[in-house]
Design a protein that fits this description.
49% helix, alpha+beta, 2 domains, 5 helices, Lipocalin, 26% strand, Helix Hairpins, 8 strands
Length: 271
């Protein structure tokens, strides 16, 4: 199962996010607990055949975290713009109020039209300030929600990665296997615990079973147990220095008419 996430644009325009109605944004962010619960429903750490799915869930969470990071930057820039404009309006309000005070002191030279104009100007500047204050408060509320979601995502990603078997030992993970000389493709799902290695495999479209063996000094020895035929092959191989490729040989335990008793195999890590 692939976990699909929306493909974000490389660059986000702050205006695009900020043009969204605040109610829409708050509603989307309020869905965080349900979305994290859905992540837990999608995870199945006990089943090795689901490791690719589990890793895809982590990838989706990390992509969501990156999107949130870009949104936070955009919202922060918009808040700074509001703060600068608010400072300008405050200075304008102080200057307009000071002009009102000067004119009232010289009341003999003050007309009712001048007083009305100054009062209207002060009201207009105060309204601009109040609007900027309200916009700033809404942005702060949105930033708080985004930060809460980002922190929750970071914590959940760390918890999931700590629980994934692949984070424990070098062999633990998903390996794409090529069975030579026939060229049959398959997948190994390996769990390493110290020197012990266990797992499951799929080979071709029909064959599957379990694996068990040891890993010592970069050398892996495995016994393959087919789900229908039982113990049917022995494998040896060596892990390369980068830890991403295993190359080795295999020996069949039974003679299959028309088949080969031995050959080579190559495994490449996918997760």
């Amino acid at each position: 199962m692939r976990v699909q996430v929306p493909c974000p644009q490389d660059r986000f325009e702050s205006r695009r996010w900020l043009r969204l109605p605040l109610l829409v944004l708050l509603t989307a962010l309020a869905l965080l607990p349900a979305s994290l619960a859905q992540v837990d429903d999608d995870l199945d750490l006990s089943n090795p055949f689901n490791r690719e799915k589990n890793a895809a869930v982590v990838d989706a969470l990390e992509e969501r975290s990156r999107i949130l990071g870009r949104m936070l930057v955009d919202f922060s820039r918009e808040y700074r713009r509001i703060a600068v404009e608010r400072g300008t309006v405050v200075r304008e309000l102080v200057e307009t109020q000071a002009e009102m005070d000067r004119q009232v002191i010289r009341v003999r030279d003050l007309s009712s039209e001048q007083l009305e104009a100054l009062r209207d100007q002060i009201v207009a500047v105060r309204q601009r300030y109040e609007k900027l204050e309200a916009d700033g408060r809404r942005l702060l509320d949105s930033l708080r929600l985004l930060l809460l979601e980002r922190d929750a995502l970071h914590q959940r990603i760390a918890e999931i990665r700590a629980d994934l078997p692949g984070s424990q030992e070098v062999l633990t993970g998903v390996w794409e296997v090529t069975w030579l000389p026939a060229g049959t493709k398959g997948t190994f799902y390996l769990d390493q615990s110290g020197t012990l290695v266990t797992g499951q495999y799929r080979l071709g479209s029909t064959r599957s079973g379990s694996l068990r063996g040891t890993f010592v000094g970069n050398k892996i020895q495995l016994e393959r147990v087919d789900s229908q035929r039982g113990r049917d092959a022995e494998l040896e191989g060596f892990l390369d220095e980068e830890g991403g490729v295993i190359r080795g040989t295999w020996q069949s335990f039974e003679m299959v008419q028309g088949g080969l008793p031995h050959g080579q195999w190559v495994a490449r890590r996918t997760r």
